[in-house]
Design a protein that fits this description.
Chain lengths: 436, 274
Amino acid sequence: MKLTTLFLGLCGASALAFAAHAETITIATVNNGDMIRMQKLTDDFKAKNPDIDLQWVTLEENVLRERVTTDIATKGGQYDVMTIGTYEVPIWAKQGWLLPLDKLGADYDTADIIPAIAGGLSADGKLYAAPFYGESSFVMYRKDLMEKAGLTMPDAPTWEFIGEAARKMTDRANDINGVCLRGKAGWGENMAFLTATANSFGARWFDEKWQPQFDQPEWKNALDFYVKLMTDAGPQGASSNGFNENLALFQQGKCGMWIDATVAASFVSDPKASTVADKVGYALAPDNGLGKRGNWLWAWSLGIPAGTQKAEAAQKFVAWATSKGYLDLVASKEGWANVPPGTRTSLYNNAEYQKAAPFAKMTLDSINAADPTKPTVKPVPYVGVQFVAIPEFQGLGTTVGQLFSAALAGQMSVDDALAQAQQVSVREMTKAGYIK
Amino acid sequence: MARKVSTQRKWVATIAAWAIAFVIFFPILYTIITSFKTESEAIAGISLIPSGTLENYFEVQSQRDYFKPFMNSVVISVGSTLIALLIAIPSAWSMAFSPTKRTKDVLMWMLSTKMMPAVGVLVPMYLLFRDTGLLDTRLGLTIVLTLINLPIVIWMLYTYFREIPGEILEAARMDGASLFNEIVYVLTPMAVPGIASTLLLNIILAWNEAFWSIRLSAANAAPLTAFIASFSSPQGLFWAKLSAASTLAIAPILIMGWFSQRQLVRGLTFGAVK
């Protein structure tokens, strides 16, 4: 009896000692459907890793960006895993702020990550963040309105076609706008769309010597086209519309076309939220025949700050959350349509996924059509399709975005907006030391 | 005739007061209304009639734990207010009853600390918190909120104390009261309305403080302001859920303010009419 008691006591003590060794990792993340879903599915991770506890910090995108930047720059060590995008990864990897992900496990299959996405998350051939979901942009359009306008949307339309279709589909009397595009100022708002669009017009932010290029005809053509198109066929108050505002307009049947993130496809085709769910078609982002399309590339990814004391546990979590097994887990619990898109090639070869997500092929084609290392027609010294991966871009991009938003709102001319954008960019780039 | 004009004026003043109160309260009212709408109703345009769905509240509850940030908010706001009062009462006493020629300058200097944008000292504060192990702790946030609100608390108490005749304190001293007894047993009871309104106002300020509480906390000490912020989404509709989270976050302080409004108004108008 005494021996049994002693044995049980030892077992209890061992269990307590084991529990005391359980590590808690803190994950900073954004609030979107895929991330919320992951938080609900973490029982699977805990079952496989009973010695690791998870703690979540969910923040609004811009606050998250500011918080994790402060923490990583000061080595605050509050987070062990951070949700970051393709903009941060090249900059932070260069600064030595992120750990390379080289212990993701033998069955992780890094080669399965979509090459364009992996390229945007790597530096010097090493992967510094693992994609949780990836996206590009494409055209979502109303098949019924297109038919009514007597047109057929090609798989790969030109900007000329989009302009013509938008004007024909516009029906102001019935509150239908031919096209809904981002107008809200911000480097990740209107400038994401306009930078990607400008790429297809042959424009670029900087030449090889970091000289701003807003005084070149390509930018004038791109911005002129955008402002005229939105004046003729866009919604009222478009200069304050971002992703969510345009999503609401499209879901309510007030847009003939919407060019935005591929992730929007799951929202507009959801019959519970969208009044036009069964009438939506998809096409690649438009081009001008110059070899570049107006689509972007973005991936919300999980990175590990160099200052963490729990690197091993953090890598285990990142490997779990971005693995093929996780996609299967989501599919088994919530269906294939809810699997986070845009990260793994194998997902797009999966017949069940293709059946559940009619926009799957177009999403993959759009992602593959974007090359963050060669984003423009003319050569550039930077990485990034809809952004320039330098620390100064957040501030500069937002300032230029405000000027272009003002041009859309009619508060200044396109020429004035471009002239001021050029002036501001030259000043900021000189101050930052890019222009000698 | 004179009486008629007076009644008319009274009516006009009453209606104007209600109208102003409604305008001020409208954002909160609309937040509450929006919390009972569906996401598509919320973004569709201004409408004062919701469909009455409770889905957002269930969704908010299922996505995040409300109790932990709520308790953090209670501890941080009440704690920082009590510490601020402990420091501010003797400070305000000395400035009100034993002023020197530099008292006004000291008061202005204290207020000037509120004039600098908080973000200007974010990195030094972050480093201080990191090195002292105060990041993401209730103690750290209590200290920072105490320091942030201290100038306002001292200013308010100073204003109230100045209305109390110094002769009463002199009489207490004549009767042999020590400094401690003078402040605790004579001054404080006379200034209860002022202290109470300062306390309530400071709790409200601390409860609603978002800049530092979001930036210096993570998972453990995050208060309700961080809880609200977590419902904003870059992609996908979130206004109705955000409104439900906001309603849950402001409800305790709104109820507290409602019940203590008489005390609050009495304290805020203390000394306004001589």
